[in-house]
Amino acid sequence: MCKKTYWNEEFETLNRCDLEKLQVKRLRKTVGSALDTSFYSKLYEEKGIDVDSIQSVDDIRKLPFTVKQDLRNSYPDGMTSCKKDESIRLHCSSGTTGQPTVVYHNRHDLDSWANLVARSLYCAGARPGDVFQNICGYGLFTGGLGFQYGAETLGALAIPAGAGNSKRQIKLIQDFGTTVIHAIPSYLIRLHEIFLAEGIDPLKGTNLRLFVIGAEPHTEEQRKKIETLFGIKAYNSYGLTEMNGPGVAFECEEQDGLHVWEDAYLVEIVNPDTLEPVEDGEIGELVLTTLDREVMPLIRYRTRDLTRVLPGECACGRTHRRLDRITGRSDDMFIIKGCNVFPMQIESVLMKMPEVGTNYLIELVTENGVDEMYVNVELQAQCFSDSYQDLEKIQNSLVSKIRDEVLAKPKIVLLEPGELPQQEGKAIRVVDARDS
Ligand code: AMP
Ligand code: ZN
Question: pTM, whole model, 2 decimals?
Fold first, then answer.
């Protein structure tokens, strides 16, 4: 049997007792930094919380939760500690109307993050010397630079390919001998079609050997489809901007749940209604606390992602617990083409257009293996009179305004008043009919 290897054996295989001791030490430090932020200092002073309130991991329950709205209210920097001046980068999360959520990082934070991503990539089977093509947006989105620095730290040749332009992606894959790709799962299905259209067999015509997929919910069936199409393994990667980005939880070669790096994140699963912890192994909302971040400590952050902790130990030897794949969200956000979208963002665009009526319906469908977002919108009756000439203009304007707002391009269907079904109760604004 070949010996198991790790990126950082000491931390990845720490026994649970030592891991917990490390967590308490880091949690106390995190609470100390939080008391340096204007947001937490006010909150904790009101509740009489200080560093000594934390003597064990369970003491985290004495602390209040943090939600996305807190980050928005603190825009642009109300949640940074006194180390804000050391910041060398910031990222923003997609998918919010009005103020985005911003996370600042100093050198320590960025190094810690790059190490977590390097560890994650290694855990999924990537190695120094791999050629890693990162097919996702660079910029404020964390998947670009997050994977870039992580892959470089691993010692892979990292190609910052960016999103889209599939023919160019295939050229890069061929010319530079790409072995590992990170992309959103829906894009890989599209990429496979382009491979076929170009007459290239992705298995025989390239050096590809491993995929890393994430940033959007997907099922085991979708993963299997990608693996079957390309004939190589695809590993699930989970992260969110508020917790750095990628590198929070990652599948190992066992492909049986995502190890969440518990030296860097404290994990709780709570009932989203009562906010009480769920029973072991039960599905609930994932709540995370940063344990190794200096500029922006985030404590008991409600991710809104639904998952559960998988029971038992992993055959890979890593002691960090495993999360099940994300099964949904406890709010109404959906993800399309890798972009987080709240229906209210689309509604706010629609309602600013005078021609738009009151009813609309967002439909998510899969067409030829690609996820599409249709926005069906009823217009005012006069738009359909014989003398009215501007339907095409309205359509184009809606496409560009919605794309500017949510970053994903919609398909617009203009309807006459009354064409959409009227609901008696709470309006249904989103129908998700995607394949997986
Ligand atoms: P962002 O902050 O823009 O990177 O978006 C983070 C959100 O994307 C998370 O809270 C999840 O809802 C979603 N997400 C990221 N990775 C995954 C994954 N592997 N599976 C399911 N959802 C994911
Ligand atoms: Zn494992």
Answer: 0.88
